Amino acid sequence: MPTKERLAEFIATVERNEHVEAIERFYAPHASMQENNAPPRVGRDVLVAHEAAALARLSKMDTQPAVMVLHDGDNVVIQWVFLMTNKTGETLRFEELTHQVWEGDRIVRERFFYDSRQFG
C-alpha cells in the first residue's frame, strides 16, 4: 500500500510531465498497463518504451493537476486531464480515469478508462 507521501510524489511527477520517469520510479518491474479493454502491456521496460514513443508523437504534453484522487489501501483511482499538442500545433484535451493496484510502494497494475472518441 502506498503511503500518502509516496502517492503525492507520484502525482507530482506526472504533473511535471515526467511520464517516463514516473514509470521508471514508481512501477514494479513486472507491472502492467491496460487501455480500456485492450490487452495489457506487461513489463516496466515495455511500459517505458511505449510511453516514450507516445510522447515522441507530440510536440507538447501539458498535464493538468489531478482532478480527483481516491486512495483505499492498495487501490488508487486518479482522474487526469491532459492537453496534448500534436506536431501540427493542434491541442487535444484528453480526460481519463486510471485505476492502479499497488504492492508496497510500487504500481503493479494500471488500467485506463476513457472515451476513445476524444481522439476524433
TrEMBL record:
<feature type="domain" description="SnoaL-like">
    <location>
        <begin position="9"/>
        <end position="109"/>
    </location>
</feature>
<dbReference type="InterPro" id="IPR037401">
    <property type="entry name" value="SnoaL-like"/>
</dbReference>
<dbReference type="Pfam" id="PF12680">
    <property type="entry name" value="SnoaL_2"/>
</dbReference>
<dbReference type="InterPro" id="IPR032710">
    <property type="entry name" value="NTF2-like_dom_sf"/>
</dbReference>
<protein>
    <submittedName>
        <fullName>Ketosteroid isomerase-like protein</fullName>
    </submittedName>
</protein>
